Structure prediction request, 525 residues.
Amino acid sequence: MKTIKVMMRFPASQTDKPVTSYLVRDYNLVFNILQAQIHPGMRGELTMELTGSEEDLANGIAFLRGEHIEVVVVSRSIVWDCDSCVHCGACTAVCPSAALSLGSDGLLSFDESKCVLCELCVKSCPLSVMAVNYTEN
Amino acid sequence: MTRTFDEINDKIRRGQVAVFTAEEAVEMARECGVSEAARKIDVVTCATFGPMCSSGAFINFGHSDPRIRMTEITLNNVPASGGLAAVDTYMGATEQSRTEGMSYGGAHVIEDLIAGRPVTLRASSPGTDCYPRRSLEATLTLAELNQAYLYNPRNGYQNYPAATNSSGRALYTYMGTLLPDYGNVTYSTSGELSPLLKDPELRTIGIGTRVFLAGAQGYVAWQGTQYTRGHDAYEDGDDFNGATLAVIGDMKRMNPRYIRAAVFPRYGVTMFVGLGIPIPVLDEDLMDRLSRSNERIFTQLVDYSTGRLSRPTLGRVSYAQLRSGSINLAGRVVPTAPLSSLYMAREIAALLKQDVSRGEFLLQEPVEMLPVSHPMNPMAGVKEERLP
Prediction:
């Protein structure tokens, strides 16, 4: 079993099709929706985790592409907007891996290699300077 | 060794004043002793940059043609008070947007204005013979307003308890996210840089004291709301708490770097306010107070797991312990985190030091001292209610 993250871009004509249901029924995939912006009759975007065997994942993605849906395998990261940050330290209260820490100079630092992507900082930052970013692999 | 405000202001005007930030003054006293430090230092600059919910702005928009007496007012869809005269309002920092909820509020309107961004005013009125207009919409910038000044009813808290959570679920509070089962401790102060902790008896801070408020020169207008004077004696010194300040300052002279709208998740909108106060070293006693480092300044640790008025206190901790990044609590090492920015407080203290040294910021002796004792009572005439 393998878990990947995919970003799907729907053309306007496909926004009313329950494609995720087919992924479950026909390709044995388990999905977890991370971000969704779908407006019927308009372009839509859906980011989700898909779990399944290599073969089922490949077939499922091929099915989506056959439905004229753009599929991109992405990776998730936390981004810190340092310029807008006031270095209050509220995020360090919830960071479980000490990826976010305050130095003796009072400045916040973010060690991405320690980040476990829990997103608690995103939810706890009073100035919304921590964000989730999805990049295409 | 004694000094007066007048003597210090003369030195400032002559360019001969010795100004130290509160951290530098602590260091100086550690190196050469309190007496020597008192001789060497004329002014100590203190500062804080923390979330202060009790903040807001008075605004006068000028009259429209025909005139309107606004009773329903929004700025960028955030309700402002319609309870003042025709085109006056008070925009409270914690007020939330009618369309965006807690992601945008009064603090954001204030920040937008100070940053020079246009803000949309919508107002309505039943109309009167002298104010016949019933509605209007206008897009305005700070420069186009007749008056716009912050009047923050409660800023500069002398001391504030640190917060933790003994319950089994995360709590979303104005003290940040408190993780379950003593998962963390948060605190909000600049500690040894904080004005009312450095002049804890308020010998030099009172009505009329000139302050740095978000980049402008403002004033202490009054005692802050919920002002009280607390004083607990311990073997290693006294803990002071309870004093607060109401401060006023011209938004047109403010710098958006030193005032920032903020949102605490599942709590609401608040505002980081940059406040700086220069403290004159009048004598050795005051220098002794000013020399106190985070090792000698304490607060209480409070459990936020109860929704009741009275919260259990778990002990006394120093700001040096809190700043270290963890404390021992309930037999465990618990991470600690600030909510007030030390980095920004240092920047403001340094900026204020520069302004005083250059003769651009004179000290103002209080025109009236704040009361040495003042009660703070719970709400009267209200029945106790069970928590759900």
Q: What stands out?
A: The CA atoms of residues 68 and 100 of chain A lie 41 Å apart. The longest strand of chain A covers residues 70-80. Strands of chain A lie at 2-10, 30-37, 44-52, 70-80, 100-102, 108-110, 130-136.
